[in-house]
Amino acid sequence: MSLQRTPTASQFIHVDLKHVGLTLGERAVLRRVDWQIEAGQRWVLLGANGAGKTQLMKLIAGDVWPSPSRGSSRLYHYRSELHTDPYGIKDEIAYVGAERQDRYEHYQWNHKVEAIAGTGIHRTDIPLDPLDAADRKRVAAVLRRLRIGHLDQRRFLTLSYGERRLVLLARALLWRPKLLLLDELFNGLDRANHERAQQSLAGLSRSALPWVLSTHREEDIPRSATHLCRLQHGRIVDSGVIKRRGRLRRPTRMAGTPALRSRSRPVEDAAALLQLRRASVWREGSRVLHNLSFTIRRGDCWVVHGSNGSGKSSVLQLLYGDLGVAHGGLMWRAGIESGVPIEVFKRHVGLVAPELQAAHPRHLTVEEVVSSGLHSSIGLDPIRSLAAQGRIRQALRRCGGASLQNRELRSLSYGQLRRVLFARALIHEPDILLLDEPFAGIDARTRASLMLLVQRQSAAGVTVVMATHHRDEWPGTVSHELELDRSRAVYCGTLR
User: Fold this and answer.
1) Cα(488)–Cα(306) distance, rounded to whole angstroms?
2) Nearest to 304 by CA among 477, 486, 469, 476
3) Which of 111, 162, 307, 317 could form a disulfide with 188 if both were Cys (CB 3.0 to 4.6 A apart)?
């Protein structure tokens, strides 16, 4: 089989999928997918959580193998040659996605940003050889283009989630791929970095490089996209050229989200649960928080906001006990005196955070992950009593994940896994919820249901501290806000 193409087009990878399916365990994830990706095409892959977007991207990249089926084929055309699988050209495909990003956290690959981006030049996962002067110049140019040049000597794991995503985008651009796959690229990006990523994609349109961007938000469709493919329950239900961009829905608030109504006044005489005084935090030689002072009381609902790298995640990690305060500062927790293990405090806290999602091994079942919330552990799976099993089922039902209980994490979409983490956070009826970008990477319907869940927990008296980029994700019960800029508080107090 061969198709006639111009010399320029033959320099890039053309993908031809016919009747392709994928089954994980006993569940069909992709069903008879027919799709062609050609040079010069810039595709957006739309679909809700669980639609199969990530698995389809991984199948194209060669990270998963399609299920055998009569009449199915996965063909790659590159440099006038035909490949019946991607392995001969796998190094010509660059991939950016949440799972790839989570590997750095999971394996503690904490190299400098310059070195991580430079692995794109050598097409390796981790730095194996030092960068020469020419390599460093190329890396610096791409980092500057994304306006993250000032991060070049920072350690990767000291960055915010959004900053890490931009570094991995820089790595993909330095790869000089012949096909670029971007799985939920905009997750975790603030408004400024979102626009920088958009501009980077627009710059790629000057070449015939084909790319595919998956997203669940129609408002994230890049201006430079040329084609749209809609995936639903593992099937392509619509595919073709984007003709009228002006007709795309760009909602200002998510459909189904409860109207935001703030509390009239916080309860000033409620018992203090957490207190910071002149608290500064350093990570790998970089100061990530500077001189913070505030008190969180029982029943408060705090929102922490600010740009990527401002310190939002560090605040939640500090409150949870995963980071410590530098000399001269104070971190006080109710009931935790000197000599009391921090695990005692953590058993009263529900946590949802990207690093927690990355920490769980993919072979664990949903039941095992939710159960570990009873002990604030990772991977601990003691013998569960009938009462504990009932609590697992109840927690999953509250989060809309009852049907996921017996599945392994590796078979879940990013958004489905987020439901599981909410169930884990709520299984022990916590006094405090710490939520770090809890709605990133999930579709509108799931966001609306989980936002309502958080709002109900707050209204019932649970203390909530949530970090987010999006104003439309603030709970209706919000009472306080902490605005950060470059590791410092620019506002800290009751809701303005």
Assistant:
1) 10
2) 469
3) 162
